[in-house]
Amino acid sequence: MKNQAHYFEIKDIVTQFVAAFNNVVIKRYNKDRVEQDQINVRYVYSPKDRVLHDLVNKSQHLKLPVVAVSMSSIERDNERVFNKIYGQYETNSDVESKHLPMPIPVNIGMNMSIMSRYQSDIDQIISNFIPYNNPYIVISWKLPDELSSRITEIRSEVLWGGSLSLNYPNELQPNQPTRVSADTSFTIKGWIFPGKAVQPAKNILHINTNFTPVSGFEYI
Length: 220
Hints:
The protein has 220 residues and is mainly beta. The chain has helices at residues 9-21, 48-56, 119-126, and strands spanning 25-29, 35-40, 42-45, 66-76, 87-91, 96-101, 104-116, 136-142, 153-160, 165-167, 180-192, 201-202. Strands 3, 4, 7, 8, 9, 10 and 11 form a seven-stranded mixed β-sheet that branches. Strand 5 and strand 6 form a beta hairpin.
């Protein structure tokens, strides 16, 4: 347990997740459904309650529409735990190989809350990701530099929870603006790597033994 390692796996995965969604543009239409303007949707890494607090605080000036993203859980993915193999070796040179420890498969839960003044904005925002999450999208990150001298790509599935919970304001104060929100969730199939515990091993270049072909054996 003392061989602690921190390779920023979770930070890199979450950064890629936000980057995959952080390019949504919604349009403003007139009564004839002709486009009049475009608005970039703001993405923030923060729980929904924190964003709502900032909206109430006038000094924050956080404008709608906004999408709040936050991490909700991390759990081991037992379906991807195959065995207790110690890892594998990557060829470093002609004489030795570097040990790559077996990572732990984890499911990272992500919450996403969409807030807007207009239902049409939410309709456009969710239409940016629902058609492409059927059944999942894939984000790409790399094996930590401390573990490998090569640039090795890791691909992680991002599974949408499949439902959105819409919330409408039922009671409003005279000076309170209308806000519509939609809450949904995602699961990222990620990995967390243990620390380096094994030194490079010498490659096996020759096997000193003789093999003699023999015929006549019957397979049962």
